[in-house]
Structure formats: structure tokens, C-alpha cells
Amino acid sequence: MADAGHSCPECGTPNTAGAAYCNLCQEPFAKKESSSLRRVPMIPFNEAAASNVRLSRLLFFLLFAAFFGLGGVIGKAYGSVELGLSLALILYAILASAAWFSGGSIVLSIHDAREADPAEHRQLLNVVEEMKIAAGLPMPKVYVMQSQGMNAFAAGRKPDEASIAVTTGLLSGLNREELQGVVAHEMAHVKSRDTLYNICAAILVGAVALLADMFLRDAFFFRGRGRSGSGGRGNAAFILLGIVFALLAPLASRLLQMSISRQREYHADAVGAEITRNPLGLASALEKISRGGAEVPGENRGTQHLFIVNPLRAFSAGSSALMSTHPPTGLRIQRLRAMAGEGG
Amino acid sequence: MTALWIVLAVVVVMAVAVVVSYNRFIRQRNLVQESWRQVDVELKRRHDLIPNLVEVVKDYMSYEQETLARVVEARGAAVSARGTAAQAKAENALTESLKSLFAVVENYPDLKANTNVASLSEELTTTENKISFARQYYNDSVMTFNNTIQSIPSNLIASVFEFVPSEYFAAGEGEKSVPKADLR
Question: Do A250 and A272 lie in a common domain?
């Protein structure tokens, strides 16, 4: 509006001041920086959210397929597909219920999160309440972690038992608008049940690894004794296939899990922007976080995917790699800016 | 015989469709009502906060009695307003008068430094935000409800059961402009 926009050098279209690339021809403005970034199409946030949900579902389905495929092949190797499938199912049920009933409180205690004090953290509590109203959710529990690093996470299986935790570094480093963006991102995780998705994905990956491990030991152990020979003919081929599967499945499922995790981050950014109607608040917060640090107390590989920015390998150049839990922060900022350019 | 079965099947399918559609209307209308209650709660909260603010601020601002009087007056009008449209109008006027009050507060450094004022101003900021987010959520749910009422084929069900479109809580004209009270 009033602030000076600039014209695209390629096609001359006027653009908003904060735009990362041209509205019309999608030519990036900052050439040196954008060269490493994949160009993203400009789409309004509700469409971004919908397509992320579709992709996540597809990935999740593939993860399931990998899991039961492995169970089936292993079962076939021992002469009974049903046996393999039911073994996979039983294993899944055990792991899932263990994770389900252990609850979300563990992650809070790992990171030494204390409940927010109504007087000291008045503004944080106010911002969370604003965001729960905007998202139409029940009020989550609010926690604070003592750390200079700037980070935040959401936990809990359902919206009515959700909790949101932020570091003290985040509270002191961000202004109200940026804090709102971060809290909206976490609220988006709660609203789209990402915490539940994460639990399920972690269980599946764990189960696939366990199953593959069991099979590999067994296959090598029994091979010399000719057990399959007495079981039925043609099973040797399936044992071989099973070994190949058992070697590949854990890796494949892990890649899928990371891919889902990255999609959920984009999705939460998009939904967060929809909640605040202000993508630039979160964009500016992510910028500040990437300039500062994102470390948290008790950080470890097991919970890194929960945070708004990965506390362990936040901004390494190769963080777009297949095994990372979060998309590169620069790309997230670029997408958020694109949403604002669309007229959010 | 087969024709009878086909007719019966069609009737059953249609009955199920009507029930599903009706229930969706009820759900959406309840959401509209519930989100309106949220707006209402925050509006009341603002009405309650304003006397405190005026009390704290008035000793410092001897030259700005007019701005204060306008806030008090707008509050009175907002409290007594009835009906969504009238209420929206009065509340928008109140929002505007508060904005000009805070613009004036900016000019008094010792007033800004007062902890009472600082915490009151945070409370009022958050209440303003809550009102606008609650209104956003309310308007979103009204839009969903109205879309369902006006779309084919659910508009048939809506006309049979007399579901009427809800009213938006409109943003005021003044809300998009800069506060102008202290320019005079």
C-alpha cells in the first residue's frame, strides 16, 4: 500500500516491498540468496494447508503400506502370510498403546518445562489465549523452559489435553506480533493433531525397524538348519526377498517419517498464518530465531521433530536433506512472505 | 416389485440425506452461537476494564479530558447497544476512541512508565486482540453457515426448516483509518 513496492526487473510488474519473488513471472529478486532455494508457487494459505494435508496423508499411507508389506513378506517366507500380518498388527497394537498411555507429560519433563506464572508471563498467557480464540480451540496448558535459545513446541494427543512450551529466550527476543506468530504455529500443530501424527509415525518407524531386526536375525540363524525346506517349497526365494525388504524398509520408513515431518511444518506455518491472518509475524520470528540460537534444555534426537525450529541442526546448509525433520528456515520464510504477497 | 424396491431405496436415501444435512445445519448454527458468546465475553471484559483505565490515566492527562470523555461516552453507548449490527457499530466506535486514547498516552513518558498503566495497557491490548480474533472466528463460522444455507442442494433443506443466514460482525469504517483525535 503506502510502503514502497518495487517493480520486477524481468517483467516490470509492481510487487509489494517484502516479496521474495515476482508476483507474475516468479523471478526471485534476491538472486544470490535464492539460488539455493527451490522456487515455490504462490498460493493462498488455505490452499497450501489443504495440499499439505493431502500429501501428508499419502505419505502416511505409504508408511502403513511399507509396514504391512514387510509383515506379509516375512509371513510368506515362513509359509503363512496371515501369521506375518497378524504379527505386524499385534506388534503395532502393543507399541501404539504403550505410546498412547505414556502420555505427553514426558516430553515436558525432559525439557524441564515449568508451568507459566500468571503474573510473570502475563503477556505469553494473553497471547496464547488470543490464539486459542482465533483457532477455536480449548485453552492449552502453557509452559516455559529456561534457555537463552529461542524455541517452542506443542505436545498432547488431543486439543483438550494439549500443552505449549516456549523458552525464556523466545519471550525476551521476540515482540508481541512475532510471539503471536510462533504461538499460532504451535496452535496449528494442536489443531491439525500433528502431535498425534508424530506419535503414530514414530511408532510405525520403530515397529518396522523392530520387525526387520527380528526377521534378519531369524533368517540368518535358521538358514543353516533347513527349516524352510521342511516348511514348503519355494520359500527360499521369499526369504531372500524378505532379507532385502528387511534391509530397506527401516531406511525407507525413516525417510517417509522425515518427509511427513517436513510437510507438517509447512502445514503448521500455513494454518498459523490463517489463524493470525499475518504470515509476516511468524516470518520475522523465524528470521530472528535463525540469527540467534534455537537450543533448549535437555535436547535430544528423540524429540527434535516437536520444535518450531530443530534445536539440534537448525540451519545447517544441508538441512533440506532427506533425513531432516524441518524444512530449511529460509524456505519457510520465503513461503510465508509469498502468502503475504497474495494479500493475507 | 423391483420398481417398489427402487422407490423405497430412493426414499430411504433421500431421508438419510435430509437428516445428515439437517444435523449439519444444527452443528453450524450452534457454532455460530457459541462463537458469538466468545465475542460477547470479550466485549464485556473491555467494558469492565475501561473505568479502571480512565481512573488511572485521568490525573496525568489534565489537558486531554475530551479524549477521555469520548472513551467514556463510547463505552456507555456500547454497553446499551442491542442487536448485532447496532452493537458492532457501537463497539467499533469504542475501539476507535481507545485507539486515540493510546495515541495520546504515547505523548506522556511518565504515564507510559507507570506500571499500572503498562499492565492495564497490556490487558487492553490483549482484549482488543481477543475481540478481533473472536470476531474473525465468528465471521468465519457465519460464512460457513451462510454458504451452506445458500448452496445447492442444501438451500432446499434450509428453506424447508427455515434456517436464515446469520449477520456478520462487520469491521467499522474507522478501524481501517489512522486515529485522528489528537490532530486537532
Answer: no
Residue bearing cell 515431518: A261
**Which residue matches cell numbers 525433520?**
A325
Do residues A22 and A128 share a domain? no
Q: Tell me, rounded to whole angstroms, the distance of Cα B166 from its chain centroid.
A: 13
A175 to chain B, any CB pair closer than 8 A? The answer is: no
Three-class SS state of A199: helix
Identify the residue among B129, B136, B140 best suited for mutation to test binding to A, counting A beta carbons within 10 A and taking the highest: B129
List b or e across A6-15, with b for residues whose CB sees 16 or more CB atoms inside 10 angstroms: eebeeeeeeb
Return the residue in A125, A128, A133 with the most chain B beta carbons within 10 A, the one to mutate for interface testing.
A133
Nearest by CB: A136 against B35, B42, B129: B35
CA distance A32 to A19: 15
The average pLDDT across A226-248 equals 67
C-alpha pair distances (Å), A209 with each of A70, A218, A247, A249: 10, 14, 9, 8
| Domain boundary, last residue among A220, A239, A255 | A255
- From B122, which residue of chain A is nearest by alpha-carbon distance? A123
Please tell me which of the candidates A126, A129, A134 has its beta carbon nearest to residue B136: A134
CA B165 – CA B155 distance, rounded (Å) = 11
- Tell me if the domain spanning B36-177 has CATH number 1.20.1440.20: yes
Q: Is the dihedral of CA A173, A178, A179, A184 positive or negative?
A: negative
Provide the residue range defining the domain that includes A121.
Answer: 104-195+260-341
The ipTM, to two decimals, is 0.76
Tell me: pLDDT of B182 over 60.
no
Query: Once rounded to an integer, what is the mean pLDDT over residues B67-84?
Result: 86
Q: What is the pTM of this model?
A: 0.74
Q: Which of A60, A302, A322 is nearest to A192 (CA)?
A: A60
More confident residue, B103 or A99: B103
**A179 in a structural domain:** yes
Residue A82 among the catalytic residues: no
- When divided into structural domains, chain A yields a total of 3
**Neighbouring-strand partners of residue A28:** A21
